[in-house]
């Protein structure tokens, strides 16, 4: 029941994040169109200012010219800078999301995320290396023994795919290229064999 509730919660989070990323994409498209329109408007203002240059030279009060130019530039540039600020904030949000999706072993964004019995999530290749070096199947985080083999977290994998798509980059392949999931079965089989041997050894001593 707990696993079902956990999966259901992950699915709800997945839907929420997906909706959020769609909205961010839409706002980004609107921002791009607005910036293009502002650039076009700025070009028009430049042409207008160039056309008025000869007339402005004849004005006695240079303060009038200065105020006119300042007003025109503020009118065009201020909204432009606002959209730049919005895009900067959007990038900060994406960076924060990526920070929360990091494996605490390799300190990078999850590559092929796998979850243990304790619900902690790690990169599949990192778990293989950890189990092999430690000689057991304890969780790298809470040290709880993992009885069942790690399971691929497809919900989190979907979220990661959306993050990479929103950032316009591909998922990292340096860890996943040589990853063999069948190594989990081998590690757990060796663990069971060791435990069986330990039991038999203990019985023989009685």
Automatic annotation (TrEMBL):
UniProt domain RING-type: residue ranges: 103-143
Annotated Pfam families: zf-C3HC4
Keyword Metal-binding: yes
GO molecular function: zinc ion binding
Keywords: Metal-binding, Zinc, Zinc-finger
Stated name of the protein: RING-type domain-containing protein
Organism: Thelephora terrestris
